[in-house]
């Protein structure tokens, strides 16, 4: 008789395995382009993941990626459910997936985002003064750290590949600041939001490293999903982001970490200008 327990035990194990597998499938994965250090990205994502977990009713995990291209591939291949992309990476993801990605929300600040050019050299006062000098961009796929600064240089009659002594790519905005501060390059271009945060946190001395040019405004970052995500889930996500408010302790904390006043709905059409700039700069086929 005691051997009759065995089939029940096996059945119980099978049911447990199915439950674990189902829970694993329900895990909602988010990622972000690595435009800052891994520790900073992890710090920013933790409270947001906890908030989304409560709002969505599923386990939410932040999945770091090694570079911008990896974020694009992860979303296009549905290895993640939600990705924080720059305007250019969104355009790349759209092309990579055959138009099967949907931008849901952006920070209010992303409707009028800007880049800054910085230097320690007192002789550099304008974009024209960069001719014959070394300049660092961020990642090659960065909107605010490469594409748009390059676009505004071209508009000013300066071809970075022809008119500059050397063009470097630091890989991240904070790394660009470090390269300029240490004298490795004469100047650098980066995201204005990261610059202002580094100054506020006293991680850079604006008396030594200064902004000499700020670009006109353009659309930038957004939270994007794959088009195969059910409409109900998309609506849930938009609602969760839009409901974040500085009037609540949790909302205030999350918005501050995301460097956002608030989140607002966005649409693919907002990034047509980014696509055009990428084509004009020869960065998109």
Please provide a written account of the structure.
It comes from Variovorax beijingensis. Belongs to the phosphate/phosphite/phosphonate binding protein family. The structure is a single chain. With 285 residues, the protein is of the alpha/beta class. The chain folds into 2 domains: 28-111 and 219-281, D-Maltodextrin-Binding Protein, domain 2, CATH 3.40.190.10; 115-214, 3-Layer(aba) Sandwich (D-Maltodextrin-Binding Protein, domain 2). It is 44% helix and 18% strand. The protein has 11 helices and 11 strands. The protein has helices at residues 5-26, 38-56, 68-76, 87-96, 143-155, 160-163, 173-181, 192-200, 231-242, 249-257, 272-280, and strands at 28-32, 60-62, 82-85, 101-107, 115-119, 134-137, 166-169, 187-191, 210-214, 222-226, 263-265. A 6-stranded mixed beta sheet has the order 2-1-3-10-4-11, sandwiched between helices. Strands 7-6-8-5-9 form a 5-stranded mixed beta sheet. Helix 2 packs across helix 9 (231-242) and helix 3 (68-76) crosses helix 4 (87-96). The protein starts with a helix and ends in a 5-residue tail after the last helix. The model is unreliable at 17-24 (pLDDT under 50).
């Amino acid at each position: 008789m005691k051997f009759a327990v065995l089939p029940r035990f096996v059945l119980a194990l099978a049911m447990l395995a199915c439950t674990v597998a189902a829970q694993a499938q329900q895990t909602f994965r988010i990622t972000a382009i690595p435009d800052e250090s891994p520790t900073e990205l992890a710090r920013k994502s933790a409270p947001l993941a906890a908030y989304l977990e409560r709002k969505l009713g599923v386990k939410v995990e932040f999945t770091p990626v090694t570079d911008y291209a990896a974020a694009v591939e992860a979303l296009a291949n549905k290895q993640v459910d939600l990705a924080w992309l720059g305007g250019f990476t969104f355009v790349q993801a759209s092309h990579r997936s055959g138009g099967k990605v949907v931008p849901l929300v952006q920070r209010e600040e992303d409707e009028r985002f800007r880049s800054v050019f910085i230097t320690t050299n007192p002789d550099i006062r304008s974009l024209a003064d960069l001719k014959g000098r070394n300049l660092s961009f961020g990642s090659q796929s960065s909107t605010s750290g490469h594409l748009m600064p390059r676009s505004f240089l071209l508009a000013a009659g300066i071809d970075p590949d022809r008119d500059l002594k050397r063009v470097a790519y630091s890989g991240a905005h904070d790394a660009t600041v470090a390269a300029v501060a240490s004298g490795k390059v004469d100047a650098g271009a980066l995201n204005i939001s990261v610059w202002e945060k580094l100054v506020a946190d006293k991680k850079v001395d604006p008396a030594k490293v200064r902004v000499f040019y700020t670009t006109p405004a353009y659309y930038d970052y957004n939270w994007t999903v794959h088009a195969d995500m059910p409409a109900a889930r998309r609506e849930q996500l938009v609602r969760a982001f839009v409901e974040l408010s500085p009037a609540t302790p949790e909302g205030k904390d999350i918005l501050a970490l995301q460097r956002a006043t608030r989140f607002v709905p966005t649409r693919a059409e907002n990034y047509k200008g980014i696509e055009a700039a990428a084509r004009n700069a020869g960065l998109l086929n």
